[in-house]
Amino acid sequence: LFVYRNRLDQSEHIALVKHQPVPHQATLVRMHQLDIASDVLGGLGAAFRPNLIEAAMRALAEFDGPAVMVMLRDPDPKVLSSRFSVEDPIGLGARGLRDYGVGAQILLDLGVRDMVALSSSKPKPAALEGYGLSIIDWQNLA
Prior knowledge:
Blueprint: E1 2-5, E2 12-18, E3 27-33, H1 36-39, H2 52-62, E4 67-72, H3 79-84, H4 96-110, E5 114-119, E6 134-140
Parallel strand pairs: 3-4, 3-5, 5-6
Antiparallel strand pairs: 1-2, 2-4
């Protein structure tokens, strides 16, 4: 377990690591944007998503090789009230693209280079190659 602090906004992020990643060996990677409404409470209405953390932990444990889950926290101190507000709801993934850079830096620090992305969708993360990272395969998060 590693805790990383963003020097700009002081938000803290968690990285769970199974076996030390080695450059040029595929590492199973799950980037998870923490959302307390979904991750703890199961979500509400259209925001419902199954327990992705539990499914990811199971997949990481079963993977034959290094595996990493990075859990990114939203630095907004009003994230919960905004999440449940009718006037200004936060959509899932609202911060996603901005957090790729933070997640990429964490992966680099852990020694990840080639990764198998664990995801329920296939997003097109911008500029991963600029960080020296490459997605060599995808694994569905069921």
